[in-house]
């Protein structure tokens, strides 16, 4: 055990200052220190993608990072995706309508990976969707409905914002 | 009890159903999608401690001593427990077959790698894991016995010395004149097969928070329990507590697939909580723990199978010899998996006689646990391989031999030799449908063209039964004495006329709360948003089991309809009094209580409920004034097994026919799935989208089973696949997006005609892919007899054949 170190970061638009043991993983920090339990831990081996978050806009596995490495970063978790009033983001809406989840445990990770994809490729091909989601494991759905959810979300987002396709409000 | 239960869609008291049978959005989803669902690891209780478990590094070793003093001194550590304490204060865990159980912590010797030997409760998981490193265990390693061949040899090391043998159970069951069928056969085909261990691996591991109440002497556990009531029984037995002093609170969990029923964690955390003066103790299994020794590993099987066949392709007899490597104990109830094949032993076929010779063998591998399908998937695989072998032997197309042996639609209900009764089906229609969808003849032409080019392309055509709605009686041959699995609900109408339905199981992912809402909204003529489903703990819930054995869609529907009928009868009595008529003159229709044949003479449901809850002076004198009813449903017509294990066990027999085309790369042994088609029939589809989700998801697990997933052990019993980098789950790249068609042959035995569907394609996919692989390998003169068909295995087969020729 080593003495806690101060870190400062922004999570879903909120600034936090905290002192964490250097060995604390980022996902443990988010879940246990900040109470943001929407990000899930599936394997702690970097293999399942359930803990995927956005770090400075990039999808990363929060189980493979230490919280101290996120010092100064801007983090987005599933809690930052929809509205504070409970409104679903079009991506979440599409997952619901296309039955892109069953137990829902892996879903926050899929949403964050898909969010990053749609930021970069508002009109993704199936191959691009597969590449973006290839590191997220789902044991329930067999992926078919997830593929469809992402396709539908892309269409919805483009229709909602044809000029700035792919950028969505936080 | 209601006189005649609502049984069909047209019996529902609405002019037209609006939700049942539609792919409505799931009520579970908004919370899951926003990360708000309370999975067990999200729960924090005041004063909560965290548990870490020290596990045996040896597959077989005597524990000579354990020194925990240094661990106990570590700041933050509150309690440490060992097997000695478990032996002193608990019972061995329940096991099947009986007498093959151990304590929740190894008390004398470790019997598998990963068996818990000590555990720590500390201020954080980090500190608890630090403390594990300070525990000093002195082991005396013993020779491990890893495979049944070795375990059955005289003089082999014994997993349980006091048993004097490693054979947990041996039985030979004979149904019909099977020897005669083999004597009179034109051809007999015999093959050996090996199915390697695989397992459930839900994305969420197991998790438990145990809290001991030292004053009351009671235990409360929150956790990711698949069947909380069943878990409470196990915990009470293990801890020597009366059942009313154990409260299990099931939390929504991130999948189970059979793998969330193990009681060890409850025992360990309960002991730690008691030792900590009643502070809650949380244990969240990590993935390595789950893979090495969690409730996951299933189906470790050696088969020898024979088929008796007539010249025209009629199959007259089936003999199956199974040796099952159960692992170190019978704690996971995995023995059920060897008994469930009785529910569909002869598949879709009119095979008149059969024999099942099974041996369950103890070894120093991790104990087996249930997994989706619960045993028939390997059985279906060997049966379907044999059907293909027989087809080639008598010169028939694989589709044709199946067609010739199908049970015909007019033969239902149909009793198979092993005693189960299939409710309904039209197997030939499913076959025709999938052949048409896949343009089967054209696929064969494509295959011929590919073969011309030297490519190994193959097609599998497979038909199977999915037994649905499990009953304990199916498991009688391994020592389970019960018949009937209750599922109870309480349905209430509140002051605002909205409905609360209380159930005895937590969310697991199959969408049952949605089905409950669909059924109740249609029954009472409401919106789905007017219904709320509330899970209860085991001391509050009516008798309930929860999901398992593809039962809950059917069982929950039955329970809800039973309760709704009773509630309707009560409301009618009250409304009749208020409207000054006889109950016989009244009916519930479209959410209103009305006098039959008198337009306008009606009261809305909410109004009647309000009167019941607020105006006792207006009620009939003999009425129970609660707008509420509880109903406990069990499958009708289940029977006690006879001496050969024959019983009407699983209530429904869904069926599916799969056609799959694969290509095997002869240079690398890698299999690519080119096309996949499914026609399935699970009776009435209560929510077609969730049914399709079960099928596609189960297909993915079937792909994993056929091609990827395997727990690999070395000769010393060390598991070599303890991460997701070694134990390979199918990714989005591995799962074909299957084209699917539905046939609907309603069950005459179930509420609304639905059949169990949760295990789905797992019953069919491994068989279908393996048939396709063997069809592809045909020109090379080799046949794959092992699952999974990994590149390495297929490559070796191909290379050996090349060397020979």
Key features of this structure:
heterodimer, A: 170 residues, alpha+beta, 5 helices, 15% strand, disordered C terminus, B: 805 residues, 20 helices
Short description:
Chain A is α+β, with helices and mostly antiparallel strands and 170 residues long. Chain A contains five helices and five strands.
Describe this structure in words.
The complex is a heterodimer of chains A (170) and B (805). Chain A is an alpha+beta fold and 170 residues long. In chain A, 32% of the residues lie in helices and 15% in strands. Chain A contains five helices and five strands; from the N terminus they run ββαβββαααα. Chain A has helices at residues 26-33, 90-97, 107-120, 126-133, 144-160; strands at residues 5-11, 14-20, 52-55, 58-61, 74-76. Chain A has a five-stranded mixed beta sheet with strand order 2-1-5-3-4, with helices on one face. In chain A, α2 packs across α5 and α3 (107-120) crosses α4. Chain A starts with a strand and ends in a 10-residue tail after the last helix. The relative contact order of chain A is 0.15. Residues 164-170 of chain A have low confidence and may be disordered. Chain B has 805 residues and is an alpha+beta fold. Helix content of chain B is 27%, strand content 24%. Chain B contains 20 helices and 31 strands. Chain B has a seven-stranded mixed beta sheet. Chain B has a six-stranded mixed beta sheet with strand order 7-17-16-15-8-31. In chain B, α11 runs parallel beside α19 (765-777) and α18 (688-708) packs across α19 (765-777). The relative contact order of chain B is 0.13. At the A-B interface, α2, α3 and α5 of A face α1, α4 and α18 of B.
């Amino acid at each position: 055990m080593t003495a806690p170190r101060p870190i400062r970061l922004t999570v879903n638009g909120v600034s936090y200052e905290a002192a964490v043991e250097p060995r604390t993983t980022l996902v443990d920090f988010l879940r246990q220190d900040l109470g943001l339990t929407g990000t899930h831990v599936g394997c702690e081996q970097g293999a399942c993608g359930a803990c995927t978050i956005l770090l400075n806009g990039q999808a990363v596995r929060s189980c493979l990072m230490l919280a101290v490495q996120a010092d100064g970063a801007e983090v987005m978790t599933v809690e930052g995706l929809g509205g504070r009033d409970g409104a679903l983001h079009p991506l979440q809406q599409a997952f619901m309508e296309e039955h892109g989840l069953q137990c829902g445990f892996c879903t926050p990770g899929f949403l964050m990976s898909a969010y990053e994809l749609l930021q970069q490729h508002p009109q993704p091909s199936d191959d691009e969707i597969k590449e973006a989601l290839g590191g997220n494991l789902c044991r329930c759905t067999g992926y078919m409905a997830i593929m469809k959810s992402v396709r539908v979300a892309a269409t919805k987002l483009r229709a909602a914002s044809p000029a700035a396709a792919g950028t969505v409000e936080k | 009890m209601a006189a005649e239960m609502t049984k069909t869609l047209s019996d529902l008291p609405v002019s037209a159903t609006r939700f049942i049978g539609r792919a409505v959005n799931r009520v579970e989803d908004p919370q899951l999608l926003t990360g708000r669902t309370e999975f067990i690891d999200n729960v924090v209780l005041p004063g909560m401690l965290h548990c870490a478990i020290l596990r045996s590094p040896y597959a077989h070793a005597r524990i000579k001593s354990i020194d925990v003093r240094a661990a106990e001194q570590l700041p933050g550590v509150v309690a440490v427990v060992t097997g000695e304490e478990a032996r002193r204060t608990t019972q061995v865990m329940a096991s099947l077959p009986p007498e093959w159980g151990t304590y929740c912590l190894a008390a004398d010797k470790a019997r598998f790698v990963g068996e818990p030997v000590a555990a720590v409760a500390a201020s954080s998981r980090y500190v608890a894991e630090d403390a594990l490193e300070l525990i000093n265990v002195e082991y005396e390693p013993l020779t491990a016995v890893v495979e049944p061949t070795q375990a059955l040899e005289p003089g082999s090391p014994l997993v349980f010395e006091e048993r004097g043998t490693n054979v947990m159970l041996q039985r030979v069951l004979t149904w019909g004149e099977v020897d005669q069928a083999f004597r009179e056969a034109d051809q007999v085909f015999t093959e050996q097969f090996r199915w390697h261990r695989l397992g459930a691996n839900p994305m969420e591991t197991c998790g438990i928070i145990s809290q001991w109440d030292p004053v009351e002497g009671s235990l409360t556990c929150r956790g990711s329990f698949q069947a909380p009531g069943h878990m409470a029984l196990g915990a009470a037995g293990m801890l020597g507590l009366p059942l009313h002093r154990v409260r299990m609170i099931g939390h929504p969990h991130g999948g189970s697939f059979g793998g969330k029923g193990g009681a060890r964690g409850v025992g360990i955390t309960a002991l730690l909580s008691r030792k900590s003066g009643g502070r809650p103790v949380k244990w969240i299994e990590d993935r390595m723990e789950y893979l090495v020794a969690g409730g996951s590993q299933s189906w470790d099987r050696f088969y020898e199978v024979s088929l008796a066949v007539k010249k025209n392709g009629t199959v007259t007899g089936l003999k199956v010899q199974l040796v099952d490597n159960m692992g170190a104990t019978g704690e996971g109830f995995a023995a059920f998996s060897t008994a469930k094949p009785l529910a569909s032993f002869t598949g879709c076929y009119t095979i008149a006689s059969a024999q099942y010779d099974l041996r369950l063998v103890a070894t120093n591998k991790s104990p087996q646990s249930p997994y989706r399908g619960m045993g028939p998937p390997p059985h279906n695989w060997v049966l379907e391989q044999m059907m293909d072998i027989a087809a080639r032997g008598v010169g028939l197309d694989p589709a044709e031999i199946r067609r010739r042996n199908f049970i015909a639609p007019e033969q239902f209900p149909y009793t198979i030799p092993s005693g189960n009764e299939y409710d309904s089906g039209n197997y030939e229609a499913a076959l025709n449908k999938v052949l048409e969808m896949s343009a089967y003849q054209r696929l064969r032409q494509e295959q011929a063209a590919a073969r011309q080019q030297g490519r190994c392309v193959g097609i599998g055509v497979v038909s199977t039964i999915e037994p649905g709605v499990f009953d304990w009686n199916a498991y009688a041959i391994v020592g389970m004495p019960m018949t009937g699995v209750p599922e109870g609900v309480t349905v209430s109408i509140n002051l605002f006329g909205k409905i609360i339905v209380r159930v005895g199981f937590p969310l697991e992912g199959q969408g049952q709360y949605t089905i409950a809402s669909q059924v109740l909204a249609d029954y009472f003529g409401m919106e789905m948003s007017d219904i709320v489903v509330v899970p209860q703990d085991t001391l509050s819930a009516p008798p309930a089991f929860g999901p398992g054995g593809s039962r809950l869609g059917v069982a929950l529907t039955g329970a809800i309809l039973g309760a709704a009928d009773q509630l309707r009868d009560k409301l009618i009595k009250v409304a009749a009094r208020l409207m000054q008529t006889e109950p016989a003159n009244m009916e519930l229709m479209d959410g209103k209580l009305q006098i039959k044949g008198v337009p306008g003479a009606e009261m809305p449901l909410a109004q009647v409920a309000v009167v019941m809850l607020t105006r006792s002076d207006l009620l009939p004198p003999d009425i129970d004034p609660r707008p509420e009813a509880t109903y406990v449903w069990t499958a009708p017509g289940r029977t006690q097994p006879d001496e050969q294990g024959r019983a009407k066990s699983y209530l429904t027999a869904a069926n599916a026919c799969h056609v799959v085309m694969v290509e095997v790369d002869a240079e690398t042994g890698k299999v690519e799935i080119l096309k996949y088609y499914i026609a399935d029939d699970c009776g009435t589809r209560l929510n077609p989208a969730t049914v399709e989700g079960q099928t596609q998801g189960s297909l993915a697990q079937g792909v994993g089973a056929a091609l990827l997933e395997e727990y690999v052990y070395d000769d010393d019993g060390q598991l070599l696949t303890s991460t997701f980098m070694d134990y390979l789950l199918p990714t989005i790249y591995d799962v074909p997006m299957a084209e699917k068609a539905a046939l609907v042959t309603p069950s005459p035995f179930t509420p609304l005609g639905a059949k169990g569907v949760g295990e789905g394609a797992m019953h069919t996919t491994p068989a279908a892919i393996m048939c396709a692989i063997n069809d592809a390998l045909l020109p090379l003169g080799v046949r794959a007899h092992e699952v999974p068909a990994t590149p390495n295995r297929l490559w070796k087969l191909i290379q050996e054949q090349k060397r020979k020729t």
